[in-house]
C-alpha cells in the first residue's frame, strides 16, 4: 500500500456498504434541499431551473424535450418545464436501475 510520503504512516479504513448508502442518501437529501431552496415550490420552471433541479446542463433539458422524454411545453415563446414531469422522469429512471 502506498502511503503517499507520510513517514510510513498508513491507515486503512473499511466502510461497510450499508454505511456508504446511508451517507449517499443523506448527501442527496442535502443537495435536494439546497436546490428546492433556490427554486422554491414553484410548479413551472424555466430551462435553467430545470437543469439545476436535475443537476445537469441546460442542453440536457433541451435534449430530453427533443427526445420526447419531457413534454415540449411553451409559454409566451419560452420553454417551461413542469416540476412533476421532472419528478416522473427521475422516478422512471430509478425504476430502470
Characterise the protein shown here.
The structure is a single chain. The chain is mainly alpha-helical and 97 residues long. It is built from 4 helices and 3 strands. The protein has helices at 17-39, 47-54, 58-66, 83-96, and strands at residues 44-45, 73-75, 78-82. A hairpin with a 2-residue loop joins strand 2 (73-75) and strand 3 (78-82). Helix 2 crosses helix 3 (58-66). The model has no long low-confidence stretch (mean pLDDT 84).
Write the layout of secondary structure elements.
Layout lengths: L16 H23 L4 E2 L1 H8 L3 H9 L6 E3 L2 E5 H14 L1
Antiparallel strand pairs: 1-3, 2-3
Short précis:
With 97 residues, the protein is mainly alpha-helical.
- Largest sheet data: 3 strands, antiparallel
- Please indicate the percent range of residues in DSSP E strands (runs of 2 or more): 5-15%
Uncertain segments are: none
The mean pLDDT is 84
Specify the helix fraction band: 55-70%
C-alpha termini separation: 34 Å
Amino acid at each position: 500500500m502506498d502511503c503517499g510520503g507520510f513517514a510510513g504512516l498508513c491507515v486503512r479504513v473499511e466502510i461497510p456498504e450499508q454505511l456508504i448508502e446511508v451517507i449517499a442518501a443523506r448527501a442527496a437529501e442535502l443537495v435536494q434541499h439546497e436546490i428546492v431552496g433556490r427554486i422554491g415550490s414553484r410548479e413551472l420552471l424555466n430551462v435553467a431551473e430545470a437543469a439545476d433541479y436535475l443537476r445537469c446542463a441546460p442542453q440536457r433539458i433541451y435534449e430530453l424535450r427533443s427526445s420526447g422524454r419531457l413534454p415540449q411545453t411553451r409559454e409566451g415563446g419560452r420553454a417551461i418545464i413542469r416540476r412533476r414531469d421532472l419528478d416522473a422522469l427521475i422516478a422512471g429512471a430509478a425504476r430502470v436501475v
